[in-house]
Every structure is written in C-alpha cells, then in structure tokens.
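A reminder before we start the practical. When you read a complex entry, don't treat the lines as separate problems. The point of joint prediction is that each chain is placed relative to the others, so the output describes one connected object in space. Small molecules and nucleic acid strands, if listed, are placed in the same frame. In the example below there are two entries. Take a minute to note the order of the lines before looking further.
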Amino acid sequence: MKARQIPAAIPVAIGLLALWQGLILPPFLLPGPVAVVGALFSHRDVLASAALTTLAEILAGFALGAGLGAGLAVAMAYWPRLAAALRPVLLISQVIPIFALAPILTLWLGYGMAPKVAVTALICFFPVASAFLDGLQRSPPACLDLARTMGASAGREMWHIRIPMALPMLGSGLKLAAVYAPIGAVIGEWVGGSEGLGAVMIHANGRMRIDLTFAALTLVTLIALGFHGAVAWGVRRAFWRFS
Amino acid sequence: MNGPAAVGIVSLSGQVRIGGQALFPPIRLDLAPGRWTALLGDSGVGKSTLLRLIAGLPIDGCFDGRIDTPLPAALMAQDPGLLPWLTVRQNAALGSRLRGTRADADRLDDILTRTGLQDHAAKRPAQLSGGQRQRVALARTLMEDRPLVLLDEPFSALDMRMRLAMQDLAAELLGGRTVLMVTHDPAEAARLADHIALLTPAGLFPAETPDMPAPRPATDPQVMACQAALIARLLAREPA
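Here is the predicted structure of the whole assembly.
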C-alpha cells in the first residue's frame, strides 16, 4: 500500500465498520464490531495460541509450496519435455477443489499440523510454479543469443541469465501465494483437528458463539494482510535489482 | 568471390524458406577476411536471418545450403542485452562469467578505458544513456576477442549524433577483424563498409563503396553520393 492511499483507505474502513455496527441484526446472527472486539479480548489466550498455530502452518506451508513450485519451474524450464509432460499435472493441482482434498490429506496425514501445512503448500504451489515458469520461458532473446555465441552451457545460462531475469515474475507468484496461504491453513483446520483459528471458528460456530467466530476471522484477516505485506516487502527488497 | 572458401573466409550459400516460401533466390555471401561487409536491405528481407545462421543461432524457417564459418564469432545487436543486476564492468566481462572462467582484469580495464567507460565501471545499466549502453555492448564484444564480429543493427536505436560517434568508435576498435554488419541504413553502410551487399527479395547484389578508408565522414560528397546510389537501388527493388 502506498502512503498516498492510506488517507483514502482509513475513512472507507471507518465507514464500513460504522455501517456494520449500525446494522440492526440480532447479535447471535451478526455481532457488531464492539462485540467482536470484546470477544477478542475475553478469549485472548485461546485466540493468541490458535493464531500462533495458524501462523506457523502458513509459514511452513508457504515455504514448502513456494520452494517446490520454484524448483519445479526451474526443472520444467531446463527440460522442455518435462514441461510438456507436467503442464497438465500442474493445472490439475490447481483445479481440484481444495475443500475436496483437505479431508483426504487429513486421512493420510492425521490430525496434527501436517495436513494443514500440506493444504497450504498445495495452494501456494501453483501460483509460484506458474508465474516463475512463465518468466523462465520468456527470457529476453537478445540475452539468450549472447549466451549461445559466448559458449555458455545450458546450466550457466539458466543460473546467470534465465533465473535472475525471471525473479520479478517469481516475486509476483510469491505475492499471490501469500494471499492464498492463510486460506489453505484455515481450510485445513476446518476439516480436522482442534488447533488453530480455523478450529476455533468451527467450534464457536457450533456453539452459536458468532462473536468468537468473527474474532477469529478478524485475526485471520490481520494475519493474511500482515503476511502479504511482509512477503511483498521482502520481494521488493530482494528482487528490485532484477527488474 | 566465387572460388572455394579459403581458410578463414566466412561464406554462406543457399536460401532461407519460411513456411515453404523462399525469402530470396539462392544467394552466396562471402566475408572478406579482416574487412567490414555491410549487409544492407529493408526490414524483413532476411538480413538478420543470414547473420543468425553465420552466428550458429536458431532461425525462424529453414535454411537450405552451406555455411562455412571457420572463425568463432562475437555478437552485438540493437538490443544491447545488458543484465540489469550486473555493473558495467561485470556486463563487459559477461562471456567469462557464462563460461565459468576468470576475466583478464588488465584487459578489461584497458577495454573500458578505450570505450570511455572507465568512470562508469561500477554503474548499473539503468544509470546509463542509450549510447553508453551500446558502448558497454561494444566493450563486451571486444572482451570476447573473436576474429569474426557480427553486428545486427547495433546503432539504429541511437540518435544521429550518438550513432555517428558509436560508428567511429566501433570502426576504430574493431579494425582488423572480419565484420558482418547488418543494417537498413544506407548512410551507415556508406560510412563504414569495405564491401556492401544489397539483400532484396530478388537476391544479393554487390554495391560500390566510396574510394576512401572507413570510417568515412558522414558529410563527404563521395559518401553522400554512395548513400544516394544505395537509396535509389533499394527503392528500385530490382537493383541488378
């Protein structure tokens, strides 16, 4: 977010909160912001520990998915026949509804952290692999011509030209994956287990504690915004020279 | 021109087809050793394709014929192809980096000085003007130290003043090498070339060059006359 946008974003946020507070609905259907803040405060111990769990799943899943996605993109760019063979698989990994896959992953990996990390990794994998591969396959022709006349091996061409040239695209993929990662973690928590903000939401919903559901939802949103901001900042800092 | 290719003589004969359609009738292009040959023609006529064939680079379409390039080539194109994350100095030594060898630091310093880049060595391409970027590309070409140099419209994106300066610099620093310069600019061919070959859809035709050593002054009457003759032949499309 640029500094200029903040003054416009603040009144919009305040307006939406006021609208929300002003809605006349029974609190057990839609608690207002004041009730949600109250729930945040009164359940702070549970929520804090759940938020840490969810954050850990996001970080682990993001690292795993982004790492696998980037590695596969390089392999596919290096071996075009592998790319042709794996393109459909890559697409399938994305079109399978993650909701359908999450219970299966829980069945395979148990009720601990592993299936949540796996769902998060799966959801992060495609945007990173796809964007990075696009970048790797669109190296500037002038640079590739140079590399060939200079007698570069395919590996050195990849390392010294194609990968650095594609880093801005990798950055786009990472930023997109950062938006999806919290969704993956929460879906994983909904499906099984008792840890994390997703589990808090499911339990609170079941007991008609909508204020607690919204409090957990608010934390998920804050974590997602913060994580995306951190990744965007990291990408800018690490890759600015390459664009 | 039509004898068997001697050692060191770069020669290409044959034709290029794109989608079954021949770009031009069978041609023969010989590059005189140690001389500048300008390959002049309109855009899209296949000049760069011939250069790519001599460079051993992939082309769109298929080539039917024979290429003798006994000399290793260095390439310099309109897009200087600088890597934005490397400094001027590192870009000039790109060949060593790509081959995993160590660049000769003294030679690198010497070449950066001769290309007027000694004060810019630590800068990155984004901090340079278009002319300076082409000078880095020229320095990189010189670092490769190849007997055959292939120039693909290297100066056509520069303004007139910068273009003339770069032409002079390239002529000075590439002297003695076998050079193939692809260009659509008759003035460039008239200034720099020892031999001019006109490429048209009708084939490849030799053209006269001014009787004075290159680089020739751009405003010299002989150079202007040569340029006018080249323009007339290009416009005629059947320049034989």
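Discuss with your neighbour: The radius of gyration of chain A is 22 Å. What might explain this?
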